[in-house]
Model the fold of this input.
Amino acid sequence: MNPRQLFLSHIAQTTPNPLGIEVERAEGVYLYGPDGKEYMDMISGISVSNVGHCHPQIVQAIQEQSAKFMHLMVYGEYVYSPQTKLAEALLEVLPPSLDNFYFTNSGTEATEGAFKLAKRYTGRAEIISCFQSYHGSTAGALSAMGDETYQTAFRPLVPGHSHIRFNEVEDIAKITEHTAAVIIELISAEKGVIIGDYNYFQLLRKRCTEVGCLLIFDEIQTGCGRTGTMFAFEQYDVIPDILLIGKGFGGGMPIAAFIASHSVMKTLSFDPILGHISTYGGNAVCCAAALACLRVLKEKGFILEVESKGLYLHQAMERIGFSKIRRKGLLLAVDLDSQEKNFKLIDQCIQNGIITDWFLFNTQSMRICPPLTISYEEIDKFIRKMEEVKLNF
Ligand SMILES: Cc1ncc(COP(=O)(O)O)c(C=O)c1O
Done:
């Protein structure tokens, strides 16, 4: 069997018609097929490759760490340097109250860990999230999703989940003394980049503090420079009780985290002990990669450039006729008239060597979130290719 036949017959698929793009190597914003075909990755493997594919500093960190050791012991027992150095580097970019890190394998595991932590800390059962919000695919995260299309087939879900509307001030009253936590993104990414209102987040923070529940910000997609600051919450003057990071955090390696204060996090260590355990969480090679990635993100001017590049891309898209765009930094949603048009456009983009995508809860909008390392020349090249597609559309 050739690779495509093996893929179609033996690799689990989650759509009836997978894209099936064959990739042999990747560098910067580019993916290359076995035949040398070049694609511009304008979605960063869905907001993962923020510092580009195969960043040399990350590759080097992985090589060096893997030659020393890879895995030692399940979570939180041994002291080792890629993990402690990563914690030290994170402390420098976070407010003092977010000083304790639980490293996980994936974003959804960070979500689950945060739910458990909130229940354990508050002694309450209710988790509130927004309708049509994506926090992962495991049972708890799926229960928080608030979308019948994706939930119905998997019932019964985890009890205790309630939902509110994103950005709707009146729904904040549904948060009460029974609520353990509210989980929310500052920019609802999978609804098609719906930007949170500054005032809404002030009120949300106030309410959570009043009723004594924990506020969880899911920055798995919006974090690590994507929106023009290291974390999107910096633009809202609010600090969560628990922060979730993932995707771009690992520079391409599977690592995420739920982050809280030491006093909150320590409740996972007693009554019962081993409140959350994970064999590979905080894996040394993944931590080394994340540390290297964080160092790149922290380089002088790196994140400052994100907004300028985002604006440049936004304006160029408008110039070639895409007028309905929502954007924060280098996270863009471009509205088309219909799902049909959007899917057709995305398909033709791929034929022309540019990879874009749609959103889970908004199939009428096109996702554009390139590596933050994209140059202005590469943005120009993308726009030229987009224009060619548009001419034949
Ligand atoms: C906002 C958000 N939270 C959580 C997740 C889940 O992360 P993972 O796919 O690593 O489990 C995602 C993934 O798309 C996400 O976008």
Observations:
- The chain has two domains: 3-53+304-391, 56-298.
- The mean pLDDT is 97.
